[in-house]
Amino acid sequence: MEMIKNIVLLLLMLTIIVALHELGHMLAAKFFGVYVKEYSIGMGPKLYSKKGKETVFSIRAVPLGGFVSLAGEESPEAELTPEDENIPVERTMKGIAKWKQIIIMLAGIFMNMVLAIVIYSLIILNNGAYVVSSKPVIEGVMENSPAEKAGIEAGDIVTSIGFNDISISPNDYVELITFTSAYDGNGPWSVTVERNKEKIDFEITPEYRESDGQYYIGISFGNSAYEVVDVNILNCWYFGFKQVLFVIKLTFASLASIFRSHNMQAVSGPIGIYSSVSEVSKMGLSYYAQLIAIVSISVGIMNALPLPIFDGGRVVIVLIEAILHRDLDQKTQGFVMAASMALLIMLMVLVTYNDILKLVGGN
């Protein structure tokens, strides 16, 4: 029964994320007058459909994402009708200006980020407070601590911190603490501080503290490092936006680490996401909502990649066409699409293999 619940939660999460992504494409297309033939939640055979003024809105049998079918850019799932031939060229994707095509293509990514902002904003609003902090200036160093032994001094400003091949440049104390709280005890920290306008690098191995079950290096920031502000319906959106920016920063830091180290262990596929859903479902709605926000951001970033099967790649093709002042022939586009699809399949096989190893290995 637990497995069925987790599968339902996983499918619900993916459907929400993908359906809103496709909704972004549809709204932008309609704004620019492109004929939208169908907007579907789910894939496969139709369970229900209703035609509006010109667009068919449908629910399909397989609850996994969805799609939008735009004139001039048909989805394989779409049903072609005789009226397709009567759509004016200026109402197709190929018949509008290149900059309009780009906006339509990027609108899905925009919606992914909007979803994450809304989720984080509502969670922060529900909490009723938000921690606002200053620059990560070290106020004190504990005697005989790893930080003191390494040479860290009070007054140093942390400009970079990392472990497990992932590093960030924290803008404030909260970002630093949020990042370091994910440390699992493996390996040292690389810490860069600014002291008298000079950058100094340190390697520090945290010590485990039995009293609270936390790893520490022995630095403190004091009460002046942060303040708790009241949250209301007006300012919660700003704090939600800040949280999304921080998650994006962490995501890019993780991607950079993967490319530098060629270590795919940090990449998760469907099985890894299922495991995450299984964990957060036990922790409550707030944690499940935060997972949706994180996955939505990841989907948005993935779609920005310059591979033709993603929105980012399609934008690159449109830019190339704009530079050449002509459309790429179907043969070339087909070859590039097939090559990128093969690359994606290999990547999915690899991350699924990693997920299985993690599952079997219990880590």
Short description:
The chain is α+β, with helices and mostly antiparallel strands and 363 residues long. Helix content is 48%, strand content 21%. It contains nine helices and twelve strands.
What is the element layout, followed by pairings?
Elements: H1 2-31, E1 36-51, E2 56-70, H2 98-127, E3 129-133, E4 140-141, H3 146-150, E5 157-163, E6 166-168, H4 173-180, E7 189-195, E8 198-204, E9 207-209, E10 214-216, E11 219-220, E12 226-230, H5 236-261, H6 270-280, H7 285-303, H8 311-324, H9 330-361
Antiparallel strand pairs: 1-2, 3-12, 4-11, 5-6, 5-7, 7-8, 9-10
Low-confidence runs = none
- The succession of helices and strands, N to C, reads HEEHEEHEEHEEEEEEHHHHH
As an assembly, this protein is: single chain
- Shape summary: elongated
Strand count, sense and closure of the main sheet?
4 strands, antiparallel
Radius of gyration: 24 Å
Portion of residues within helices: 40-55%
Question: What is the count of DSSP helices, taking H or I runs of 4+ residues?
Answer: 9
Derived from helix and strand composition plus strand pairing, the structural class reads alpha+beta
Mean pLDDT: 82
- What percentage of amino acids are in beta strands? 15-25%
End-to-end Cα distance, whole Å, is 24 Å
Q: What is the tally of beta strands?
A: 12
Strand order of the largest sheet: 6-5-7-8
Q: How many structural domains can be distinguished in the coordinates?
A: 2
Can you describe this structure?
The protein is of the alpha+beta class. Helix content is 48%, strand content 21%. The strands form five sheets. The chain has a four-stranded antiparallel sheet. Helix 1 packs across helix 2, helix 1 crosses helix 7 and helix 6 packs across helix 9. It is elongated.
